[in-house]
Amino acid sequence: MTERMNYHIPVLLKDSVEALVTKPGGVYVDTTFGGGSHSREIVSRLDSHGRLFSFDQDADAEANATYVRPDGVCLATDSRWTFIRSNFRYIKNWMRYHGVDGVDGILADLGVSSHHFDDESRGFSFRFDGPLDMRMNKRGGMTAADIVNEYDEEHIADILYLYGELKQSRKIARDIVRARNAAPITTTYGLLAAVEASFPKEREKKDITRLFQALRIEVNHEMDALREMLLSAGELLKPSGRLVVITYHSLEDRMVKNIMKTGNIEGKQRQDFYGKVLTPYTLTVNKPIVPSREEQNENPRSRSAKLRIAERKEKE
What is the predicted pLDDT for the residue at 115? Predict the structure, then answer.
């Protein structure tokens, strides 16, 4: 049994798993299985009573469970491990289905797998000319091509501004509509040709990255899914359970930081009579952990990563 070793290069692997697994006999959830590196590392730290549930909505990810590590760990044959092919937004329902009332830790590596960026048929990267798809779950749903060809101009502009933080979102949306009126935009290079006049050369690569990010977030409803998962985590985590999250862009990082500091997505502080902030979490690190310079050099994708860790307080 083999793994496609280039599927995904894990980020902050040791730091995140060391923060997560505090009880070898505990119950843990890896909400983003991907290439399986984090899940395999978690299982290697569990005793015979420990359990791990791994989520991924992408069919390509499940096949990675057949890889046998040099130390003999193979998730596909390990009774302590369960794969759930689903979006992590449904974590609470699936835990209930498996008879789990509470967990000792939840890990989320929110980045897109290297595999997705390197597979030209998925449409996640502007490095290749391929179908403008961007779906994490290929079983159905709207594609990026559907969005650029069917959404009205104002809706496209809003998405690019909210999810890509592109100041020229209205001009880009206008260029997209003009191009699609001539011919449908169905490929990544077709999209680039439609918007190339909207990007100043000195910011071209960065802004195009944000354009693709915005469309990907909309296609996969990423912010809604993250919101639901984070709120469910607060209900599932046992006292002293850990919430460990690796973020890659400011939108998701802000949401994670808010939930950890205030217990709500909006970041609204509630205080008791003495002015103490009421939150269900205690931060285990005041500042996010970032990859070492060595890791950033070996894996450029890790340069934007931030690891945030919080522990569930005893219920009052």
Answer: 67
Q: How far is CA 84 from the centre of its chain?
A: 16
Contact 293, 300 (CB under 8 A): no
Distance, CA of 89 to CA of 280 (rounded, Å)? 20
Tens-digit pLDDT profile for residues 92-104: 999 999 999 999 9
Confidence at residue 262, expressed as pLDDT on a 0 to 100 scale: 94
| Helices 250-262 & 222-236 angle (0-180, nearest 10) | 20
pLDDT band at 316 (very low <50, low <70, confident <90, very high): low
**CA geometry: angle at 257 spanning 256 and 263, to 5°?**
80
**What values do phi and psi take at 77, rounded to 5?**
-110, 10
Q: Which two tokens stand for residue 129?
A: 């000319």
Give the 3-state secondary structure of 235-303.
HHEEEEEEEEEEECCHHHHHHHHHHHHHCCCCCCCCECCCCCECCCEEECCCCCECCCHHHHHHCHHHH
Q: Distance between CA atoms of 192 and 176, rounded to whole angstroms? A: 10
Q: Which class for 134: exposed (0-12), middle (13-18), buried (19 or more C-beta within 10 A)?
A: buried
The secondary structure element, H or E, covering residue 28 is strand 27-30
Give the mean model confidence (pLDDT) for residues 14-33. Answer: 97
**Beta-bridge partners for 187:** 131
In whole angstroms, give the CA distance from residue 145 to residue 123: 10
Residue type, 19: A
At residue 314, what is the residue type? E
Both tokens of 57, joined, read 């909505």
